[in-house]
Specification:
heterodimer, A: 368 residues, alpha/beta, abc type-2 transporter like fold, B: 301 residues, Rossmann fold, Alpha-Beta Plaits, 35% helix, ABC-type transporter activity (chain A), membrane (chain A), transport (chain A), cell membrane (chain A), ABC2_TM (chain A)
């Protein structure tokens, strides 16, 4: 036990004396959650649009004022000619142009049909889509108001309700993702680097020629990172609750337990990486390319798994992060308990045991 | 018998790092492995410290088999690898305390053993190990290798890259450790250090050339050796090598060590030849063979 404490103490010296690892440990999580929370967002807010109004009558004016009074759009300029549309897009100042045809009001009243065109800059397809949807809903809202007096014979009234994230805040989606990325990064990359550093500096040679058995070395190496990762996970949850007002609808305790499980999964992966890499550089590259990319691209963090091609969907199953994100989303946003996420938990547990088993088998008690 | 090496062979791919090596080191002996870089010294150390498995042969350290009882050996030996292998970001004291702890002991418990060495670096005990000079690093590494009172000490090129004064001090320390009954196996590329060992093994290209006391090894040298000097050393080497009867020509300090093929060699004859070749201030004198001469001679065969 004394040996273990001595070893862990040494590990903490390493961590706290290396500015780089301190930054990765504590700077990155905060920076990432802030970035994802504030900067990277699919929501639209005060999007600049232009208006091409060839009628300038009561109806168009009312619609325009409805649009400009919403928090989503601000009208940057009015243009006069159709030819100008392309021009304003090229300048990149506006994301959408609303084009009312001539005699809009008159046609609406007499022919019951009037046309308005929504032209969006689709260089960013997601944003273009969202803008178009928002404008559409403002228009249909206006139409509804106009038709209130008239009763139609048949009418389908769709009522959509967004549950678990009624305001469609993207930070709700990012928090579980960022938490996953950070825990993976800290646990897997940092442990693999710290173990390979011993190999690279030759200290592993001395550790091997000592009464410490390999198992004790590994546990000693990993323990500080379990501790630090738990602090990190807690910090992320606290930040998301208090800064981004993400609710934790389920049990915090369960969330904590699942996080510890995922941390152990990542650490096991880190150990596995360290057994196959000889230098810190290699360990870092394998961690970044082999872990970070799948976590970001294949876990459902940013791109929904259901819209991926089938082969990628299949591959996504072996990414531990996918399962953890499902669990975190379930607990935080849906408020579900273990009775719902037990399957995902079991998958993570299985993966962890597999990684630990593989590392133990691959771990060398000698130099070759 | 403290270390017994029995027909050990080890190869890396096609390179024979060790070729049928057998050595026996007695309890409390200071034994030197002498050979150039790449001779196989480090490989032998790693096999004896249970870090590598031999391809053939067997060995035991402190009575334990290096394969079957590797765990027991790891508790009994102190190992100082060729490269400085301590934690550079830990202070002198933290390093020492760490190694004491993992061997289940304390600095205080075995302080007697390391006192002579550690007092010299104790004033810097709060300095990071990475910031120490070469000589101090080596003293710290030795302290760390000794802190658990090992029965056998393995030192792989401990004095490489260390200044002459520290080297001398280091060997004095080894002698004192030997007096305390610790068996020491030390390797070095420096032939002058070989003379300080009880017995040495000359090793090259994975083969043992000779094992004996330094004195006996020097006495076995088969030919009379002459120190040859002249005003232009470069030209001298060239001309000596061109001499029809030369056996060996090695630069040695300020002189050239020369041996002749003939039994009845007359130095005056060589003097005349060199003068004829345009060399001045020629000086030829009989000298004693050194371990280096023996090594070169054996390596030639």
């Amino acid at each position: 036990m004394k040996r273990f404490i001595g070893f862990v103490q040494k590990e903490f010296y390493h961590i706290f004396r290396d500015r780089r690892s301190l930054f990765i440990l504590f700077g990155m999580p905060v920076a990432q959650i802030m970035l994802f929370g504030f900067a990277i967002t699919n929501e639209i807010n005060n999007v600049d649009i232009a208006i091409l109004d060839r009628s300038q009558d009561a109806s168009t004016k009312e619609i325009i004022s409805k649009i400009s009074s919403s928090e989503y759009f601000s009208i940057l300029q009015h243009i006069k000619e159709e030819a100008e549309i392309e021009e304003v897009f090229k300048k990149g100042k506006v994301k959408a142009v609303l084009y009312f045809e001539k005699e809009f009001s008159k046609k609406l009243i007499k022919q019951h049909t009037a046309k308005v065109q929504i032209v969006t800059d689709a260089t960013d397809p997601n944003v273009a889509n969202t803008i178009s949807n928002y404008i559409n809903s403002i228009l249909s809202n206006y139409q509804e108001e106009q038709n209130r007096a008239i009763t139609l014979d048949y009418q389908i009234v769709p009522q959509s309700r967004m549950v678990f994230n009624a305001e469609l805040k993207s930070v709700y989606m990012f928090v579980p993702g960022v938490m996953t990325v950070i825990l993976m990064l800290v646990s897997a990359m940092m442990t693999s680097i710290s173990i390979t550093r011993e190999k690279e500096l030759g200290t592993m040679e001395i550790l091997l020629v000592s009464p410490l058995n390999p198992f004790q070395v590994i546990i000693g190496k990993v323990f500080p990172y379990i501790f630090l990762s738990i602090i990190n996970a807690a910090a992320i949850v606290i930040l998301s609750i208090f800064v981004f007002h993400v609710p934790v609808n389920g049990s915090l305790f369960l969330l904590g337990l699942e996080s510890v499980l995922f941390i152990v999964t990542s650490l096991a992966l880190g150990i596995l990486i360290s057994t196959i890499s000889a230098t810190q550089q290699t360990a870092m590259m394998i961690s970044l390319m082999g872990l970070m990319l799948p976590v970001i691209l294949l876990s459902g963090f940013i791109f929904p798994i259901s819209s991926m091609p089938v082969p990628l969907q299949v591959i996504s199953n072996i990414v531990p992060a996918k399962w953890f994100i499902i669990i975190v989303k379930g607990i935080m946003l849906k408020g579900v308990g273990i009775s719902i996420v037990w399957k995902e938990t079991l998958v993570l547990l299985g993966m962890t045991l597999l990684f630990i088993g593989l590392s133990v088998r691959k771990y060398k008690i000698r130099l070759e | 018998m403290s270390i017994r090496i029995d027909h050990i062979s080890k190869s890396y791919g096609k390179v024979n790092a060790l070729d049928d090596i057998s050595i026996q080191v007695d309890q409390g002996e200071l034994f030197g492995l002498i050979g150039p870089d790449g001779a196989g010294k480090t490989t032998l150390f790693r096999i004896l410290t249970t870090l590598l498995l031999p391809d053939h042969g067997s060995a035991s350290v402190a009575g334990y088999d290096i394969i079957a009882d590797f765990k027991a050996i790891r508790k009994q030996v102190g190992y100082m690898p060729g490269r400085f292998s301590l934690y550079q970001d830990l202070t002198v004291e933290e390093n020492l305390r760490f190694f004491a702890t993992i061997f289940g002991t304390t600095i205080a418990e075995n302080y007697d053993l390391i006192r002579d060495i550690y007092v010299q670096i104790e004033p810097f005990k709060n300095r990071r190990a990475g910031k120490l000079s070469g000589g101090m690093k080596q003293k710290l590494a030795l302290s760390c290798a000794l802190i658990h009172k090992p029965k056998v000490l393995f030192l792989d090129e401990p004095t490489t890259g260390v200044d002459p004064v520290s080297r001398k001090e280091f060997w004095e320390m080894l002698k004192r450790l030997q007096d305390k009954g610790i068996t020491i196996l030390v390797s070095t590329p420096y032939m002058d250090e070989a003379a300080l060992c009880d017995r040495i093994a000359l090793i090259q290209d994975g083969k043992i050339l000779e094992i004996d006391t330094p004195k006996a090894i020097v006495e076995h040298y088969p030919k009379p050796i002459f120190d040859v000097g002249a005003h232009n050393t470069y030209l001298l080497i060239e001309k000596l090598n061109a001499y029809a009867h030369k056996h060996s020509v090695f630069p040695f300090g300020e002189y050239i060590h020369y041996t002749d093929q003939r039994d009845g060699f007359d130095p005056l004859e060589l003097m005349a030849y060199l003068k004829n070749e345009g060399l001045q201030n020629i000086h030829i004198e009989r000298t004693k063979a050194t371990i280096e001469d023996t090594f070169m001679e054996l390596a030639k065969q």
